[in-house]
Structure prediction request, 138 residues.
Amino acid sequence: MKSNKTQQTDADVAAYLDGIESEARREDCVALTELMAKASGQSARMWGASIVGFGVHKYQYESGRSGEICAVGFASRKNEIALYGLDIADGTNALLPRLGKYKTGKGCLYLKQLSDIDLNVLSSMIRAAAKTRISKDA
Prediction:
């Protein structure tokens, strides 16, 4: 059976963050790491080369395919910060109108910068998603 391309690694989260070229983006990602760790109750771990993840989400499809991915996480991309796993919890969509300036697509939430959003709303979304997605046996 085919395994996930994105696996949890032992890579250093701080080294990844330090490697973000834009100072403003780097500062946002450091702050986001702290916010996600606090809201999820999980330590930051690298998933693949570019995703900072928190907790483990184990899944199995009806087809029998199963795997693991970070419960919630983010990655600094070329034009924005992509946040993963936030759309799964009940009530999360009701918080979106209060979040601020963002885009969605492909199961992700995209932000240009943290100053564009309400961090209290984001923290609530992270808490709810982590509670829903974190596998108890991980």
User: Anything to note?
Assistant: The chain is about 35% helix and 25% strand. The longest helix spans residues 23-40. The CA atoms of residues 1 and 65 lie 7 Å apart.
